[in-house]
């Protein structure tokens, strides 16, 4: 496993071996639930912690603050009309945080917050652990929750390999990427298969502006990334592609480019 680069690469190499794929998916499901529980935005069901005690300065807080600046409760839906979030991970951080943020900042009820959150376009090309309680009370998988072995198997079945995601790409994102001309990559590894997956649902673009966090990416790879994005998004001319990168955290990025992204 350690020689494969990532568990996703390992699964792809062994996609013909159903047992190895199933075991890997079980490990992913267990690890992601634990990561949610250890995250700064985990909300203890007993109320022993404040979701925003450590997350007030997170990029999620910055994003929601900028998107909703100047908007009252009645206009909240409009903040997300032109926003599409593509999460290549399996966690529910965005969905979970937004749900609590609206209640705290706008004093919305749980049902009002749920209604707003359900209108936000969030896609998980590789699947997701399951719905949160406000999304589907009867089949909910609590954020960072403790689950038994039977439920773990059920959750693992929702996780897709790269091949499975490619087979299902027509239902993923669709026109949202085709019509956009501005993309922000946060914590994105620029793995070829993920860029290709975005390109598979993209249409031709006259211009495309991309902004990204590139911490740890060496200069020689930056040129490869740029060329790959031009090809994936089918930008008509090289002069029509604009790429700005920040070698920092997502919080650093949003402080620098937040106003540009949401304008």
| Spatial separation of the terminal alpha carbons | 43 Å
* Biggest beta-sheet profile: 3 strands, parallel
Q: Supply the number of structural domains.
A: 2
Helix-strand category: mainly alpha
| Radius of gyration computed on alpha carbons | 19 Å
Principal-axes shape call = globular
Low-confidence stretches: none
Kindly report the spatial arrangement of strands forming the biggest sheet: 3-4-5
Query: What is the arithmetic mean of pLDDT?
Result: 87
Number of strands: 5
Tally the helices: what do you get? Answer: 11
Helix content: 40-55%
Quick rundown:
The chain is built from 11 helices and 5 strands, in the order αααβααβαααβαβαβα. It is mainly alpha-helical and 263 residues long.
Structure characterization notes:
With 263 residues, the protein is mainly alpha-helical. The chain has 2 domains: 1-169, no CATH class; 173-263, no CATH class. The chain is built from 11 helices and 5 strands. It has helices at residues 7-13, 18-38, 59-67, 93-106, 110-118, 149-156, 162-167, 175-178, 192-200, 219-232, 250-262; strands at residues 84-86, 121-123, 182-185, 208-213, 241-246. The strands form 2 sheets. The chain has a 3-stranded parallel β-sheet, with helices on one face. The protein has a two-stranded parallel sheet with strand order 1-2. Helix 4 (93-106) crosses helix 5 and helix 9 (192-200) runs parallel beside helix 10 (219-232). The longest helix is centred in the first third of the chain and has 21 residues, at 18-38. It is globular. The termini are far apart. The relative contact order is 0.11.
């Amino acid at each position: 496993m350690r020689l494969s680069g990532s568990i996703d690469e390992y699964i792809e190499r062994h996609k013909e071996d159903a047992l190895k794929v199933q075991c890997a998916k079980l490990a992913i499901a267990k690890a992601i639930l634990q990561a949610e529980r250890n995250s700064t935005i985990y909300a203890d069901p007993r109320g022993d912690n404040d979701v925003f005690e450590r997350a007030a300065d997170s990029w999620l807080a910055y994003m929601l603050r900028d998107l909703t600046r100047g908007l009252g409760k009645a206009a909240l839906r409009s903040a997300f009309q032109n926003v599409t979030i593509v999460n290549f991970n399996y966690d529910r951080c965005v969905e979970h945080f937004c749900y609590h943020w609206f209640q705290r900042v706008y004093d919305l009820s749980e049902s009002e917050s749920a209604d707003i959150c359900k209108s936000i376009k969030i896609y998980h090309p590789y699947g997701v652990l399951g719905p949160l309680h406000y999304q589907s009370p009867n089949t909910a998988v609590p954020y960072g929750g403790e689950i038994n072995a039977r439920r773990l198997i059920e959750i693992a079945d929702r996780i897709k390999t790269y091949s499975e995601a490619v087979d299902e790409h027509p239902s993923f994102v669709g026109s949202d990427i085709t019509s956009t001309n501005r993309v922000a990559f946060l914590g994105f590894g620029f793995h070829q298969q993920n860029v290709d997956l975005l390109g598979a649902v993209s249409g031709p673009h006259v211009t495309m502006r991309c902004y990204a966090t590139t911490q740890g990416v060496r200069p020689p790879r930056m040129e490869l990334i740029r060329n790959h994005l031009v090809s994936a998004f089918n930008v008509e001319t090289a002069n029509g592609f604009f790429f700005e990168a920040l070698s920092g955290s997502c919080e650093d990025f949003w402080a620098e480019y937040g106003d540009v992204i949401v304008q």
